[in-house]
Amino acid sequence: MCGRTSLFTPQPEIERRFEATFERDFEPRYNVAPGEELVVVHDDDQETLTDDEWGFVPHWADDFAEGPRPINARAETVDENDLFRSAFENRRALVVADGFYEWQGDRGGKQPYRVAMAENRLFAMAGIWSRWANGGAERTTVAIITTDANDVVEPIHDRMPVILDEAHESTWLEPDSLADAKDLLHPYEGEDLGAYPISTVVNDPANDSPAVIDPIGGETGQTGLDSFGSD
């Protein structure tokens, strides 16, 4: 699964990387939790970096506050699930991040890990979005698509977000066919992804500072691949 992310890369770098402009001033985040806002590029406005609430509500829902608000959608069934099918077909997105977190172990004693590219390089996760409107109120929500874990994440968790190769991001947003989009939903194959253990300070979403990404026994910002653990 994917239940916590980060994005603290400077705003100009994010805008250059995705050739898009923020619709508001960007605030760096080290510990983004469900219900908070993720930075997203929508398929219908690829020149704008927008903020979507993390927790998917379909556009046809009668009440925004009722019913489930899933944060993830499974790659295997996203094109079949009644909750997600329309969004997969018509409202795909890039969810921008420079890391995400997973927990290893049993309840009550789980060890958190940060998963990131070397030097915290930016990447995009495959997402689906929805715009709910009723009586003048409007909310935009997003879910991150997950798949089986790759060799880096599997020792920690059996699922991971779909990380798109940079060359395939435009295909995800504008595929020639839905089959082409579905073919992109597989575990990340690059060798530049790593994981390392961090403090349980990440467990509390109120903790949102550079201390969150400190390796256990390391120094703030020591997040290159040479510092990644592979327990």
Describe it.
With 231 residues, the chain is mainly beta. The protein has 4 helices and 14 strands. Strand 8 and strand 9 (111-117) form a beta hairpin.
* Straight-line distance between termini: 19 Å
Radius of gyration: 17 Å
Q: Please give the order of strands in the largest beta sheet.
A: 3-1-8-9-14
Can you give the mean pLDDT? Answer: 92
Shape: globular
**Major beta sheet summary:** 5 strands, antiparallel
SSE string, helix = H, strand = E? EHEEEEEHEEEEEEEHHE
Number of strands: 14
Helix content range: 10-25%
Task: Provide a short characterization of the protein structure.
A hairpin with a 2-residue loop joins strand 4 and strand 5. With 231 residues, the protein is mostly beta strands. 11% of the residues lie in helices and 35% in strands.
How do the helices and strands line up, and which of them pair or pack?
Blueprint: E1 5-7, H1 11-18, E2 21-22, E3 29-32, E4 37-42, E5 45-54, E6 72-74, H2 85-90, E7 92-97, E8 99-104, E9 111-117, E10 123-134, E11 137-148, E12 159-161, E13 163-164, H3 169-173, H4 178-183, E14 193-197
Parallel strand pairs: 2-5, 5-11, 6-11
Antiparallel strand pairs: 1-3, 1-8, 4-5, 4-7, 7-10, 8-9, 9-14, 10-11, 10-13, 11-12
